[in-house]
Amino acid sequence: MKLMCPTTRLATLFFAFLLTLALTAGATAQIKKKALPVKKPVAKKTIAKGKDAKKDSRKPTKKEELAKKNSKTGRDKASAKTKGTKKDTRNAKASSRDKDTKGSKKSRVELRREAAERKAAEAVRLAAALAEKRRREQAAREARERKLAFERGLRNETAANIANDNTDGEDPTIRAAAVNALGNHAGTVVVMEAQTGKVLTIVNQDWAIRNSFKPCSTIKLVTGVGGLNEHVIEEGGTIRNSSGSMKLQDALAFSNNGYFQRVGVNIGSSKMVEYAKELGLGERTGINADGETPGRIPNGNNNPRIYSHGDDFEVTPLQLAVLVSALSNGGKKMVPQIPGPRIERSSFRPQVSGRIEVPKSVAEGMLPGMIGAAEYGTARRGVDASMGVAGKTGSCIAKGSWVGLFASVAPVEDPKYSVVVITRGESERGKYAAAIAGKVYNALSSRIQRNPDKDLARRLRLEKSSVDARTAAKMDEDEDDADSPDR
User: Fold this and answer.
1) Helices 269-278 & 257-267, crossing angle to 10 degrees?
2) How are strands ordered across the β-sheet holding 390-398?
3) Cβ–Cβ < 8 Å for 431, 405
4) What's the predicted TM-score (pTM) here?
């Protein structure tokens, strides 16, 4: 075997070593590259830092030192200024807090004082309100007591008068019925024969003969007669030259104030007084009893209420009995007479004081409305219309109390009885007076005979009311003494 030269052998080994070293370094670098990919930026940073370090290690120039010194001086000044500003701000805030604290303390004191003042003022106000409430309650109690005392006085006066009535010549059955019907009401009841004027009973004669009352809506009977006779009320019952559609029948049945005020204004107060006298108001009836009052008539009063409410008028139940009897008996104004002893009663003769100077058609023209009041109007709840009751209610305030009236006749086609009721008191109204009269008529029912063949019965034909139920309910008597609406 041929041996290799030593020099060549050494070179071969050195070359193999270098090759192995190169391969090992390449593999190592590859492994590092794969395992530590983020190392390279760090190296760059390190290099950059090294460069900065070298740069910093370089000795600065005089110019750079001066700039650095000036920059430091500026920073110090700015820092000092900032510190001063912060200190000033802290001082300002501290001062503001001190002021706010003082202001807050002052405000709290003022608030407490103002709250105390408000509380005191509220206490004064409440005390005053309580005192006023107690004063009003006391005044109301006193007013109620006065009213109750007044009411008791009226009832006691009525009871005492009834006890003192002279009942000679009266019909005891009818008197008992009238007294029972009046009950605890303060008032008076007159029952008279409509054709003869014979007085069957007068309950509370002092009030019926010697006292007079405001007629309230019963005065509409006078206004209606005047309106018909002066042709202010046309044949169909409407008002001449008026836009209202209401007719006389419904105006009487529902006691409509506006209707009769318009009629009265067209008549005038002087004419109204003439018709009132013609129908027996303002003068004594001539009853055979002492102390009869003539009542009163309003001369010179032009207020429209005289035609609807009877302001300034005063009438007696006897005068109203004569009036409604004359409207239904052919126009005769009968003199009321109380029969005397038995022998005198057997020879009783009617007396006529005169006749109402208006055509029969005018007097009879009032009757349909009076029948309507009993059938569907203001008196419908109190009377039995089947007995032929025709009447007029009245409600108003006079002499410190309400006055309730009802003036009526029955049966209307052949009138036998006229019943008039007048009551006084806080709860009195015309419809309640009608209810008292209704009880009297019920007691007389066996003596009342309807005669449909009478001439007047054939002439009296009620028209169907043109007033609907809702409006009728609103118009159902002038309870509040105020003007009711018209249609």
Assistant:
1) 100
2) 199-203, 186-193, 417-424, 401-410, 390-398
3) no
4) 0.73
Q: Are 313 and 173 in contact (CB under 8 A)?
A: no
Query: What whole-number percentage of the chain has pLDDT above 90?
Result: 62
Contact at 8 Å (CB) between 182 and 436?
yes
Residue 313 contacts residue 306 (beta carbons within 8 Å): yes
> Mutual orientation of helices 220-229 and 317-328 as an angle, nearest 10°?
40
In eight-state DSSP terms, residue 332 is E
Sorted by sequence, the CB contacts under 8 Å of residue 302 that are 6+ apart come out as 269
What secondary structure letter does DSSP report for 204? S
Beta bridge partners of 355: 332
Compute the mean pLDDT over every residue in the chain, rounded to the nearest whole number.
84
Residue 273, phi then psi, degrees to nearest 5:
-65, -40
- How would you class 352 by CB atoms within 10 Å of its CB: exposed for 0-12, middle for 13-18, buried for 19 or more? middle
Residue where the block lists tokens 């006079």: 398
Determine how many CB atoms are found less than 10 A away from the CB of residue 171.
17
Spatial separation of the C-alpha atoms in residues 280 and 318, rounded to whole Å: 10
8 Å CB contact between 269 and 301: yes
